[in-house]
Amino acid sequence: MKNIFCLLFVWALPLCIQAQKKPVFIKLAPDSSGVLFSNRLTETPDLNIITYEYFYNGGGVAVADFNNDGLTDLFFTGNLVPNKMYLNKGGLQFQDITRQSNTGGRRGWKTGVTIADVNGDGFVDIYVCYSGDLDSSLRANQLLINNGNLTFTDKAKEYGLDDKSYSSHAAFFDMDQDGDLDMFLLNHNIKNLRNFDAAFVKKMVDPDAGDKLYENIGNKFIDISRKAGIISNPLGYGLGLNIADINNDGWPDIYVSNDYIEEDYLYLNNKNGSFTESLRSAFGHLSNFSMGVDIADINNDGRADIYTLDMLPEDNRRQKLLYAPDNYELYNNMLENGFYHQIMRNMLQLNNGDGTFSEIGQLANVSNTDWSWSALLADFNNDGSKDLFVTNGYGRDVTSRDFMKFYADERLKFNQGKTDDKMFSMLQAIQSTPLHNYIFENTDSLSFIDRSKDWGIDALGFSNGAAYADLDNDGDLDLIVNNLNQVATIYKNTTVENNGLGNYLKIQLKGKGKNAQTVGAKLFLYTGKKIYTLENFYVHGFQSAMQAPLLFHFKESSLDSLKIIWPDGQRTTYNANLFLNKEVILDEVDAIKSPLQFIQKNTVFTKSTQNIPFIHQEDLVNDFKIQPLIPNMLSYSGPKITSADINNDQITDVYITGARGQEGGIFVQVASGDFFKYAKFSAKEDIEHEETDAVFFDADSDGDQDLYIVSGGYALEGEELLLQDRLYINEDGNFIKRPDLIPKEALSGSVVLPLDFDSDGDLDLFIGTRVSPAKYPLSDKSILLVNDGKGKFYQDSIISNGLLNALGMVTDALWVDINKDGNWELLVAAEWANLRAFQFSAKGMIETTEQVFKDSLFGWWNKLQLVDIDNDGDQDLVAGNWGLNAQIKGDKEKPVSLYYSDFDKNGYLDPILTYFIQDKEYPMPSRDEITDQMTFLRQKFPTYDAYANAGMKDIFTKEQLDNSKVLKANYMATTWFENKAGILHTKTLPIEANFAPIHAIISDDFNKDGFTDLFLGGNIEQVRIKIGKMDANYGTLLWGDGKGNFTTASQDYLGWSIKGCIRDVIKIKNKNKQSTLLMGINNSSPLLYNY
Question: How far is CA 341 from the centre of its chain?
């Protein structure tokens, strides 16, 4: 029997594997579906990518039930070929009715398509956009009014919508909630503007390139762009458009994604027929060449998240071939010229609910999809979470670095009217690389898994516009894709066939008046902790529109309520359990409405009225000028804050460190809670020092607080005198500099920690060092300063047994008796290192790392904090790290590495960072970056193609690599360590803890529930362009439960949106014992929040 069972199991196993591999999507054969449309483009000497830069942008898709028979029909735009309309006959069979429906369009360059019941007659109309470097008579957009009998009549001129701009797309929506549909028109310039004054050009109005807003007044559309606050300048290269209630105020807002240097636009509805462009207050950074955009709630919290597409490839070869080298000065010039932070990759902007967004595309695994066009966020596998579909591909690799110089020259010739046949023949030699589209499964944990191959979306080609719809009415979403020079693709979704329908709720809304389709309605389905959200806007992705079903799928077996916000801003709430697993029709006429109410939340923190008269002002150096290959700048590490009651008035006073060229200061707190600069301290004579840390402590055992200030800095090569630390002795309230009490040294310090390592009753000092000036990743030795009991310190190198010589780039240190045995440990954090522990005995300093830490985790550690997280009476540890929201990710199997040596023998270190891309280790620097640093490599890699697949063994000889040193990092997450009998065990924190590098940590019971909570602050802005500004942390608060578990507090519940780079945080109290968090922000004023 046992053998029979084994045989049955072995026989069944292949079937199980086969079932698991069954794709979610099946590509329909064109001959079977009847959809034979192909957007055919032929390059000619007069019409190609050089004569018209948007030559390969492709066409769009519109899906709607045009004849109200309950089946979704199809419409495709063709750039030069006629549009096509297909009638859904059922059974995934379609009939071409283009000619009889009069929807083929006319001569010209057709782009995007949108749909709406413009005249409110109950039938969906079509609006087609035109563009191209053509006469304006060929650019008039078409409004195809549905006659109700599957024929259409162009009435654009009659309605005032025969706009002759260079149009990409349009969206109809009721922007003023007056019951009819208005229209936003997305336009683009066909000229590549260069060498202009941005401040001047941004204020211009370009009637052909600038976007427009049309108000519907009695079925006549009037351009109200200027008075409505719409930007219509020549810099607009609009490619993506989406309408959504982004700030949850019940009114539709507008998001525009712009190609090239002009940033995207976020228009928030002012509820009076106008909009306020609010992008910079909401986002820390954007996609550079923004293309398609979609807006949906990806984490079921009831908020609209935003996803924009760009051109960063997934694989190393195309990254190295197509990505321009970093130029930090050019980037700063862009900012100084009035533009915003933009990086070439997809961006997933997570809505924090307080008007800000945390960009988490890299953490979510959706940042690299190559030259992408359409983004569609929808639930494709019926599990309740919105998945992601992305179209991909470009006709030729015109951004290949080997081609770019030729292209720039020929584009200039074309603009001057000097083009020739040589240009065209060379253009045709450029490689054409078909790519697969992407589909990602939402894991319901702020991350996505690439399921392109598993789900059947792996065919190669060039795809542009796309839409989703339930074409066969089986309860799942199918996909329709407009391809370039290939037949359009229809993917049938087999989820229901494979897994059944599951729990669902399908809703059909009936509107009143001219908005019979209820465009703009918003649905919230509440099920316990989750809020499933759908918005009834038609425009999504790229140049496309869809009348998609209002279909919820969910795993829960019971529901709470369904709230509908109707297009007029009124709300209706229903008992959702009555609709479970049903299709229901809800009529606005019958709805019992009430006004949308907003409840003011009580926040945990309130901004303090206290004031500290100090602004941290960095010396704006460019560390990349010193060592061009370092991953991030090291000069922007302050300010640090230390506190004490220096005048014995029972109120906390503080010292805040200054940057180079700025005096740090002692600030005393008075009874009112305000701070004043302390007159009995001055460091003006040392203003050129970069202060990297400071501490109040009793150096001379006289009962008052003295002050030690650490000097450091990366950009101080040849200026060793500026690295000397300083000790200020408190003499009757006067802080007197005493250089005679500390050794002379020229170490680039980073940390000071008072500790009594020799147990003689006075406080000694540990001084950690980070990086030797201009020699990353080399560090100076860290040191112990022994106190003679009277406040004079000397360096004792014998007691350290040489262990302090190799601590690496130290970033923090703690002194703690981790196992309560009476022998205290020195815990040290550093970059490119594991967390380490040391004890002191009669034999000197000994390392106890293996006894203290269960795991050896090498990271880019920034901060350490002791906390009793699990209420067991011992000290646990929280450690701030680089985080997981970056291209650079390392683990034990695929570590990040840093090779460093003087490879070119010029006397300077060359640090080369490598990380894994698709299972192989590659150097981060581009060909230009590495050959500019080491010119001998230019001969070895004369072209970008030659370098594109190169690993370290291809770039350097075995001897060069053998003579280099290597650092590795295999753990990048901010984490906490549970203390179990003196051994620290690795534990995880919520994913939000890893949105950005963490540099500041503090704990307290912030919400007064009896359990310890955590505050995490960080961010880093001065990084390589390709890494990009890391700014997704606005001050993260984690609620503890006293058992070692945490949940992330909603940002809008906190009472703050902390922007910038938090470098330190401390707790202080005023005269009334009010608790306050004081935060040090790099290059900004300190922030104070009461709780």
Answer: 12
